[in-house]
Structure formats: structure tokens, C-alpha cells
Amino acid sequence: MKGAAPPDEPLDLVAAQVAEAAGAVVSAWQHASRSVFPRLSSLQLDALLIVRRCPGINLTRLADEAGTRSPAVSRLCDRLEAAGLLRRERPATNRREIELVLTPQGLELVEALFARRQRLFREALSRMAPAERTALVTGLHAFSTAGDDRAG
């Protein structure tokens, strides 16, 4: 990858450099995801991560968060439930609603994935200078904020 672009360079060049550099992050992320057992599709894994982040989420909201349709998410949840990773519950306050929660096995799988990702990133970060690590975190936070739909 080329050095950092000066401020006067076109955004297209910077975007290309970021896309190239992000490839290593995405590759490590995907490698960690492939190491979980049972093997899950990216949509199944996304669903588990969303349910972990939003315990008690319903099917409609999960479909919205995952960027897919409710019937597909319902079938997806059927498979995750059959695998023992997800559970549908009816809350006592609203018996018509169905909430999704991770089972202990589902939570264990997600936590193992996070630990694996953290190890892979730690290995790469250990080969960087402290100032480079600080710059990376600062840049990723700024990128995340700029890309957040709620921020704009």
C-alpha cells in the first residue's frame, strides 16, 4: 500500500487506499468467523450478533437490522433454534410478541468468536509501533462516526 495521501489528494485515491488497507481487517474478521463451530452462514452469524447486541429483539426488527425480509429471518431463526443457539420467548408483559434471545450455547459461540477476532487483531497490532496503533484506532473511530447513518 502507498503512504498516506496528502490532504490535497482527491478523495477517490484516499478511498482506494482505505479499501485496500481494510482488506486485511476484513480478511482477519472473516478468518475468525470461519473458525466457529458449528459453521454458520454470514447471515446466521449476523443474526446472532444482532440478538446479542439487542436482547429481546423481535423478528421484524431483526429483519430490518439484518437487511432482509421477515420470512427469511423466520426460517433463519428456525435453523438457529434447531441448532440450540437461539430461543424464541414470549414476554410476560405482552403474550402476542415474540422475543429472540441467545441460548447459553449461542452466547458461548459469539464470545468465542469475539475472543478469536481479538487474538487475530492483537497479533497484527503487536507488530505495529505504538503511534501507529493510536493512529489506527483514532482513524477507525472517525471513520465509524462518519459512516454512521445516525450521525448524518
Description:
With 152 residues, this protein is mainly α. It has one domain (37-144): Winged helix-like DNA-binding domain superfamily/Winged helix DNA-binding domain (Arc Repressor Mutant, subunit A, Orthogonal Bundle). It is built from six helices and two strands, in the order H-H-H-H-E-E-H-H. The protein has helices spanning 11-34, 42-53, 59-66, 70-82, 104-125, 130-147, and strands at residues 86-89, 99-102. The protein has a two-stranded antiparallel sheet. Helix 1 (11-34) crosses helix 5. The longest helix has 24 residues, at 11-34. The model has no long low-confidence stretch (mean pLDDT 86).
Throw out a few tags for this protein.
single chain; 152 residues; mainly alpha; Arc Repressor Mutant, subunit A; two-stranded antiparallel ribbon; 6 helices; 64% helix; WH-like_DNA-bd_sf; MarR family winged helix-turn-helix transcriptional regulator; HTH_MarR-typ
How would you sum up this structure in a few lines?
With about 150 residues, this protein is mainly α. Helices cover about 65% and strands about 5% of the residues. The longest helix is centred in the N-terminal third of the chain and has 24 residues.
